[in-house]
Amino acid sequence: RRPRTVFSGIQPTGIPHLGNYLGALSNWVQLQSKAEPDDELIFSIVGYHALTLPQDPKALRSSRTDMLAVLLAIGLDPQRSIIFHQDENPHHTELAWILNCLCSVGRLRRMTTWKSRLATSRNVNEESEVDESLLNAGLFTYPVLQAADILLYKATHVPVGEDQKQHLELCRDLADIFNRTFKARNPLFPLPEHIFTPSKRILSLKDPSSKMSKSAPDAQSRILMTDTATQIKSKIKSAVTDSVPGITYDPISRPGTANLLDMFGACTNENPADIAKRYEGKGHGALKVDVADAVEELLKGPRAELERIRQEKGYLLNIAEDGASRARERSEATMREVKIRVGL
Ligand code: ADP
Ligand code: NA
């Protein structure tokens, strides 16, 4: 078995919600605990990606530090994993530029993610005509920056959600184009593989036809990792379900109820359909009380740890500096080799 290099990133755009935690961040902690000693783990807070949509500079600056505190609070270990701010390693944008010069506009046009991010940010339908005067070039090419993030460390494995799979395909294509265009004795970049994570999509508590999201206008639609037990209780109590009597697990026709069961199951490591059987003859009220308890049980440890670490500004600064210098050291040789191969 060959040692793996795992890379993943998250944008510093506010305190993560329960969907981010269950769908992405908790998987990172699992990867860390299951890794072999010679596996390398690299987790990045990707500030440059956040700039592809308008950000308030003050809010971005504090989100950036908060996200580092979150990663530490949930159990990522800076001794074991490289945890760093992408914007503190200039090799990311250097490699992204070179990859941009190898990537056709046609290829980027086929990506659907910038279309949906643009539509969401402008509050219009995803199917509507794209007004290119509103599309900044950074948002259009951010999948190329993502490819650079991964290839810079010659990552072999990338945990990504379903919606990001097309970006990993692009990353593999760009690695292959680079390897073929700038041949030397060995191909420079390994083609990274996708790590499948079986986690469910957590839905909005107010509109179970869409996912829980930090950009939805109604703050009651999401549970944040900083929410208190009281806030969790009240948000789950007012979650939209249906008027069908009894509890059954049916994600298609009862998405709100199924979402409660999915959240419950994710917190307690149980099958949501099995949980539904226990509540068959009961109502939504009883289920909601227990879901709120399960969510509180899951979040209380990380929340307390987050509140503690957030106060430790000096510690956070040290961790960030150390992570950035390890990341830069780690990518230096690759960047030097890239420049030699392209003729710079
Ligand atoms: P948001 O949509 O809230 O802005 P992001 O797009 O920044 O979240 O996603 C960050 C990570 O969290 C991604 O890996 C994404 O797949 C995951 N994620 C986001 N929302 C959910 C959700 N509702 N359920 C499960 N995973 C989610
Ligand atoms: Na998003």
From TrEMBL:
Gene3D superfamilies: HUPs, Tyrosyl-Transfer RNA Synthetase
Keyword match Secreted: no
Recorded catalytic activity of this chain's protein: tRNA(Trp) + L-tryptophan + ATP = L-tryptophyl-tRNA(Trp) + AMP + diphosphate + H(+)
Pfam families associated with the record: tRNA-synt_1b
Compartments in which it is found: Mitochondrion matrix
Cellular compartments per GO CC: mitochondrial matrix
Cross-referenced SUPFAM superfamilies: Nucleotidylyl transferase
Enzyme class: ligase
Enzyme Commission code: 6.1.1.2
Top-rank taxon, per record: Eukaryota
Annotated CDD domains: TrpRS_core (cd00806)
The protein's name: Tryptophan--tRNA ligase, mitochondrial
